[in-house]
## 1
Amino acid sequence: MTWRYIIPASLLLSTLTGGTVRCEGLEFTADLIMRVEQRVERTRVVYREDMWRMEHNTFGPVQVTIVRKDRLLAWHLLPATRQFKTVRFTRNHRLTVRPALEGELTRKIIGTQVMDGHPAVLYEVTTKTAGGVVKHFYQWIATDVNFPLKLVNKNGDWTMEYRHVRFGPMPDYFFQLPHAYLPVDDTARN
C-alpha cells in the first residue's frame, strides 16, 4: 500500500472548514461523518486537548491517525501490517471542535431542534478566508454542551456531523504510538 492514497478525515475537514482546535479541557469520543458530494467517510474520533485519534474505516481496512499537536507530529498507523509513518503536524491535521468558525463575520439564529439527543440551535454563519473568499454555512450547536454537532456548506455540496458524542476523560493509551509497530520503509516500492 502506498501512503499517497491515505487521506485522513482531518485533512478534509480542515480544508473545508478552516477549523481550529483550541478548547480548554475538552475530552470526548464521537463518530464523525463527512459527506462530500456523493462520498461518505466515517471516522471514530477520540479527542483530548492538543491530541486526538481518528480511526478511519471507510476505505477498506481500518487506518488510524494519532495527532499529537503537543509534539508537532502525527502518526499514520496501519493496524493490518503493524506499521506507522511519522509526519509533521500541519494545519491540515486540525479538527473543528469549537462553535466559532475561523474568519467568522456574521451569525444569525435560524431555529432550534434536537440533534442526537441534544437541544441545538441552528445558525446561518458567514465567514471570510485569509484570501478574502466569503463562505456561507449552516451550523447546529448543542446548547447543553456548547458543542458544534453539524456543519453544512450552504450550497449543500458537503457536510460534517458529530454523532454519539460522549464527554469525559480519555485514557492516555489512545494517544500513544503502539510498541509493536514498526516504521514504514519508504525506500521499498510496490
## 2
Amino acid sequence: MEAYEFKENLLRLFKIKTSKDMRRDLKDLMSTDLFKIEDEDEDTFLFVRLSKERKPAILIEMDKVLQIFNEIEEIKENKFTIHYNNNENKQVAEVAVSSDFYTQNIFYTEELPKKFEDSDNQIKYEIGGEVTDYYIVWLYKKMFEKYSFDAETEMTRQQLRFVGNRIIHRYGGTEISERGTEIVGGIVEFSILDIMRRAVNCHTLKVTKQRDNGINLDEAIESFSYTYMCNTNTPIKVYNIENIIGVGKTQRKERNNDFEAPKRKYNSDLLDYYNLAVSSDDPYISFISYYHIIEYYFDQVYREQQIKTLRDSITDPRFSNKDDDKVYKIIEKILKDGRAVREDGSGNELPSLIYLLNKYISDLDDYKERLNDEDLNFYQNNKVSFSQGDAIIWDKPKDKILKAISNRIYKTRNALIHSKSSKKDVTYHPYLHETELEKEICLIKTVAEHIIEADSELLV
C-alpha cells in the first residue's frame, strides 16, 4: 500500500474533507476568513463528526502520520505484534490486546498503565497505556490492506458504522472544545492520531528489554498473556481486525489482580486455544477450546504408553522370548487394546485422555485446590445429564478419580461434537443445556491449565 492510498482510506473512514470539499458541501459554515486559508488549494483537513452542530474542526498531524507510515515499512512484525527500538534504544514488542479490563473495571481503581517488572530477566511489562504512534499507524495499515474503504461492500459499510458510532460514543456528551485545542474563532484543532486511537477497540501490551538481553520478546508476551488470563479470567490478545473494529464481549468471573511478572514460557499453540476459551461467552466454544489443549498431546502420550507397556513386558525378569505363551500374551494385550478402541468408537482418544491426566496431573491435591467447594460437591453429586458424564467421587484412589474425570470430560465432549438421532439422550442441545455445560467449564479448564503449565519452561 502506498502512502497516498493510506491517506485516502483515513479520510474516507473518518469522513474527513479538505477545505476545498468543505467549501462545496458546507458553504453556510465555511469562510476563507474564518479558517485563515490564504491559498485556495491548501490541503487543510476538516473533521465534522464530533459536534452535534456539525461544526467543522481542523485536523492536524496528518504529515506525522504519513511519515510514520513510511518508517514502519522496516518494522518487524509477528501477527499483531511489532518490534522496534524506543528512544532509549531498548527493544520493545507491542501487541494489541483486548480493552475488556476497562469495561469490566479490573484495574478501574488503579493507576494506568499497569506495570510489572521482572528484575531477574530485566524485562518490563506495561498494559493499559496509550497506544504508541507507531502501533496505531501500523494497525490501520493492516486494516486497510484487508479492507479497502473505497469498496462499497456490506462488510466495509458495517465497519464504517462501528467506527463512527465508537467515535461519537467516546467523544459524546462533552463539548468539542474539551477534546481538542481551541484556536482562533472558537475553531478547534484535533490530532488525527487521537481520532485513530479512539476509533479502535483495543489497547496494547508493551514489553521492553535491554538490547543485549537474550530473552525472546514474543515468548515474553506469551508468558504474560497466560499469567494475565489465568489470574483475571479475561481475554487479552486480539486476533483479527474485526475484533478491533467491533465491540468486544465481556465476561464476569472470579479474578485475581494481584499477580507477578511471569517466570515461565508456554506453548504458543496452546495459548491460542486458551485465549479463545477465556474470551468466549459461549460455553460450547470454551469447552471445545479447552479440549483442544488436552488433545494436543494425545498421539504423543498414547505412543509413549504403548511403548512403555511393551518395554515393561519384554524386560520383565520372568519374560523369555523363547516362551511362546508369554510372547502371545503380549500380542493379545495389544490386540485387546485395539479391539476396545474400535468397539468404543473413540479411536485412541479415551485411553490417551486417561494417560494424559496421569502424566500431567501429578498432584491431585493441587488440582482439587483450584476448584472451589461448590464445584467439588457438584461434580461428586451430579452426573452430566446430557452426556451421562460420570460423577467424580473424590475420596477414591487417584487412578479412579482421574479415570472418572477423563470419562466425564470425554463423554461431554462427544455430546457436544456428535449429533445423532439414535442417541438423543447423550446429545448436547444449545440453549437447553447451556447452563449445565457452564458448570463443566471449571473441570476442563483446570485440566488444560495443568497441561499448559506442566509443559512450560523457565523464561531464560
## 3
Amino acid sequence: MVEEEISNSPAPEAPPPFALVSVGKITENHDDALMVNLTVSFGGGEPEAIVDYAYRVSDPFGLAPVLKDWLAANPGFPVDPYVPPPAPTPEELRAQMPPLTARQFRLGLVSGGYSPAQVTQAIDTMPEGPNKETAKIEWQYATTFNRMHPLIATVGAALGLTEGQIDAMWTAAVNL
C-alpha cells in the first residue's frame, strides 16, 4: 500500500473574481451616481474594457468597494460634471408614442371630430398606384397604428391637421 504524503502547506490562492486594471474617466450622473469608464480583468484573465460602470458609494457589491478604495487613494482624479442630454425633438417624442389599436385610433378620430369615412375619402383621393393600395390595406386591415407610420402623416395632411393636432389626438386616444 502506498501512502500519500499530506502537505500542510496552504493551497494556492485562486485569483480574485475581478481586478481593477485602470480608470479612464469619471462623470457625475443625475441620480447621485458616478459613471466610471474603467478596465477590469476577470479571474486573472486578460483586461476587458467596461464602459460607464455605475458606481454608488452605498453599494457594497461588485466593483463598488474596489472603486471606493481607488477613489480614496486618488482624491485628485478629475470628475466631470453631469451634463443633461438634450431635450428630445418632436420627432423623437412621436416615435416614443405608444401604438394605438384600430379601435382606439378610430375612436380618437371620432373624438377629434373626424369620421372614419373622411379617412377613407382622403385615401380615395390619393393618386393611383402602390402607395394608394398600401394605404387602403393599412386603413382596412391594420390592427395597430404607429404614430410615425407614413399613413398617419398622409391622412392627417389630407384632413388639414398639423403634427401638433395629430399628437394631441393620439395622446387622447391612448386612454380610449
